[in-house]
Write a structure and sequence with these properties.
Layout (H helix, E strand, L loop, with lengths): L1 E5 L5 E2 L8 E2 L5 H6 L4 H5 L6 E7 L6 H15 L7 E4 L5 H11 L2 H4 L3 E5 L12 H12 L6 E6 L2 E4 L4 E2 L8 E2 L7 E4 L2 E4 L15 H6 L5 E6 L7 H7 L8 E8 L7 H12 L3 E6 L15 E2 L5 H13 L2
Parallel strand pairs: 1-4, 1-5, 5-6, 6-7, 13-14, 14-15, 15-16
Antiparallel strand pairs: 2-3, 7-8, 8-11, 9-10, 11-12
Length: 320
């Protein structure tokens, strides 16, 4: 089952030589698959079905789409005749959707079948689009015996949903798994596995999809960053109640280095904690994790990037 959500993989530009001046999310997922000539060989007799769950540029990803997507993935994976789900997605927030699905999909479903996100850095109309190969690689991963868990496939590399991160603004090989390293490579319709397929998340921030349904408004959790001259005023401004804006429930701070904070920002964050806001210390470094400091009054994100720590915190606040 291939679920479409939009992105550059479904984007079109006026000119085939234009890889950046395009409009994302224009081509339907069924049409995208029609443009992949090698697919029948990879499918080896499996049927391919499609469903358009959304059609957005993933920079505009929304919670209602996440919820609909998670529900459709659960629906399809629960069918005995469905072997796997592939999701076409924009690259900009792919890592967030991957982590969200990793955190909320039922353990029994994703420990038996794979959910494979894929994308493209060049629009479908490009002279040399990367989407068709990525789609073929994603289907290869989806049908590889033993594959399971939430993974992402781009430029011949398979990343775990927990680790995947967009690391380049332009190159077709735009993703990294950071310190963890990639899960596998796809080479000529063969998967070369380097690590074990990811296990479902069972503890951190886990919340079932049915609990999300109960929460009409998702808890507001924002991200702030530490930098030279950071005075914490943005945090203090966020603590002020505003009509028709949901109150701040959580803050992830992308600290410097091992989650270190300018003392003025730290003071503002302490004030946030006193106002009932949950603060999670993360890092703006692309690699490494925040090691817990013994006397810190803030929670820490461990190995999650700021955007993933925000999702974990939102889910954690929902499950209380
Ligand atoms: N803005 C696009 C998106 O995330 C970028 C891409 O897909 O590469 O939908």
């Amino acid at each position: 089952m291939v679920l479409g959500t939009g992105g550059t993989i479904a984007g079109t530009a006026q000119s085939a030589s234009d890889n950046i001046g395009y409009t994302a999310a224009q081509v339907g997922v069924a049409q995208l698959l029609d443009g992949v000539p090698g697919l029948p060989a990879v499918l080896q007799g499996h049927d391919l079905c499609t469903e358009q769950v959304a059609q957005v540029d993933s920079k505009d990803m929304r919670f209602d789409i996440w919820l609909a997507l998670a529900q459709r993935v659960v629906h399809h994976l629960a069918q005995a005749e469905v072997s796997a789900v592939v999701i076409t997605h924009g690259t900009d927030t792919l890592e967030e959707t991957a982590y969200f699905l990793h955190a909320v999909l039922p353990q029994d479903l994703i420990s038996a079948k794979p959910v494979v996100l894929t994308c493209a850095m060049r629009p479908a109309s490009a002279l040399n689009p990367d989407g068709p190969q990525n789609l073929m690689d994603a289907v290869t991963v989806a049908l590889t015996p033993g594959s399971h868990g939430v993974v992402a496939v781009c430029a011949g590399t398979v990343h775990g949903g927990l680790d995947v991160q967009k690391a380049h603004t332009y190159k077709v090989d735009a993703f990294t798994s950071g310190d963890a390293g990639p899960l596998a490579y796809v080479e000529e319709a063969q998967v070369r596995l380097l690590r074990k397929w990811p296990l479902a998340q069972v503890n951190k921030g886990h919340v079932a999809i049915k609990d999300i349904l109960k929460d009409e408004v998702w808890p507001r959790v924002e991200i702030v960053m530490n930098y030279a001259g950071c005075d914490g005023q943005v945090v203090l401004a966020m603590l002020q109640p505003r009509d028709s804006v949901a109150p701040l429930r959580g803050l992830v701070v992308a600290g410097t280095g091992n989650g270190t904070l300018h003392h003025d920002l730290e003071r503002a964050l302490r004030q946030a904690v006193q106002s009932g806001v949950k603060v999670v210390r993360s890092t703006r470094c692309a690699n490494g994790r925040v090691l817990p400091v013994a006397d810190s009054e803030f929670a820490h994100s461990e190995d999650l990037s700021p955007v993933k720590a925000r999702i974990a915190l939102m889910l954690g606040l929902m499950s209380r």
